[in-house]
Structures are given as C-alpha cells and as structure tokens.
Known about the structure:
Blueprint: H1 27-50, H2 53-64, E1 80-83, E2 104-113, H3 114-117, H4 129-142, E3 147-153, H5 167-184, E4 195-198
Parallel strand pairs: 1-2, 2-3, 3-4
Amino acid sequence: MQLRGPAKGTMTGARGPAPAVPLPSGTVRRHVLFGAAITALAGLITGLLTQTPATAATTARAVTAAPARLAGDGPPGFWWGTDSLPVTVPGSAPYQMPYLGGAYGGYIGMTGNWAYWLGCRGGFIAFSATDNAQTHTNYVTYHTGVGSGAYWFMGGPGVDPNWNGTATEAYAWGQRQAARALSDIANGFFDYKVVWMDVELPGIAPAPDNGWKTSTPRRAAAW
C-alpha cells in the first residue's frame, strides 16, 4: 500500500476553508468502506463488552488462537530469492535468506544486456557470481529452491542498429537477441530452465525507454 501526500495544489495551512476539489477516483468508495469497517469494529467491541464472562472468555480464546504466520518461506513450494545486483548471504551452506528467513531459494541474474552486447556506453551486467553459486549449492546439494536462473535485458526495435520501421526487422532483432541470450547462458550454472527476456522502461542511459517507445538507432555511434 502506498501513502500519498496532499493532492497537488491542496492548501494545508489554517487559512480558511479550501475550495471544493473533486475527490480522486475511488476515494469515496475507500471512505465508505473505511466507515463501514469502523462501524463493524465498534459493534464487535460493544458485543464483547456486553457478553457474559463465560461467553467473553470463549470469544477471547477463539481470537487469540488464530495461527501466527510462520517466518521464512511459504506456502510450501515457494521460496524467497534475489536477483541482479549482489546481496550478502551470510553463513555457510545450506544458505539462508537474509532478513526474511527460510532457505535461500534462488538467484536470477542478468546474463546479458542489449546495450552491453552492442558496446554502448552505459551498458552493464547486473550479476553476482557469489549469489549464483550459493543458490546452485542449495539446489544441487540440499535439494532446496530453484537454484540459478537467468534473465536478459532486452531492447526494443528503437535501439536496433538496423531498424527500418518494418515488422520484419523487429522480428529479426528479437531473434538476434534471443540467440545472444542462449549464447550467454551456455557456460555456467543454469538450474532453472526458464530465461526471462526483460522488457521494461528503465529510465537510465543509454536509452531510457530501451527502444520500446522511441527510435534511437542513429545515436548508436554516440553511445
């Protein structure tokens, strides 16, 4: 859940009543639901206060008997893990997930990046050999988690050096990146047999939109 500050243009000082401003979509519904929740809570408290001692004790036991959520991984078959940049995992094997608890269940590293592949300034590889090896050990030795996995930072048609505005070239650009991704994972650990082609608007150099919204191939020499 995100907490938001005052709406843009809202006055917060004690300078008299502010003009009426339409509430954002969903605000009325949230207020109604919140009011209903307060009403229900008040009714519950009133009911508890007016119960007989025996009934109140039974209700209290039922409330306090609710099972607490266990720390660490859950439900069964799901594990905590990390991705990209290094995270310090202390101790020795079998490795445990830092801060959250439970087994260190997997690491998904960036094994390739279109900008790094093309030699662009600002291209990078977000990969931790240590985290990768630790999850591989947990997977092959202790049969825990999914082990080592991979993703490839994909570029859109707009950063294709050969982009000519056609669907045919866009398809070919995707094929070339897929072939490079397979080449990048050919050596080393690869336990989790899925490769994510990461499509996003990173907001960073060399192309803030990774070529998914604008065409910038002519700037390749400047990258």
